Amino acid sequence: MLSKFKPTWMIPTIYQISPSRLNKMGIKAVFTDLDNTLIPWNNTYGTNQLKSWISELDRYEIKLVIISNNSYKRVGKAVQNFRVDYIARAYKPLPTGLNKALKKYNLNSRQVIMIGDQLLTDVVASNNAGVRSVLVKPVLPSDAWNTKLNRFIEKKNMEKNYLISIII
Prior knowledge:
By secondary structure, this protein is α/β, with parallel strands linked by helices. It is about 40% helix and about 15% strand.
């Protein structure tokens, strides 16, 4: 059961994910959460660093697809300056949004990674879809009201995972 909450990798930010390395790994697409993963949850503007990272993905012909539980309006507004595809109302932690993207872009689970800042949504959805996951620290230390409960549960789960890894 706890394995559903275990990410494949954990790193501080998306910027430590090298498109060159992804290309060598055979990754054809990066699925990623939006709020507090790519941009702060309380604004819709990305940084120059984000735009540069997206350009680097493009250079290696790695598709970027936002997979968010947010509304089409919210996600569409947030990504309009990035020219990237997205799937809104993804229903994470269910694998629905990830499976939809896999089918839409004719990819298999070994050709993609999913990046997100939440165990209960992003990592669990990845594991449910059989996709490798990357857990990053949230862009901001604060969260929207609807994420605060998830953070509390995540903290307890992280403590359990840590204790289990020490025992094993």
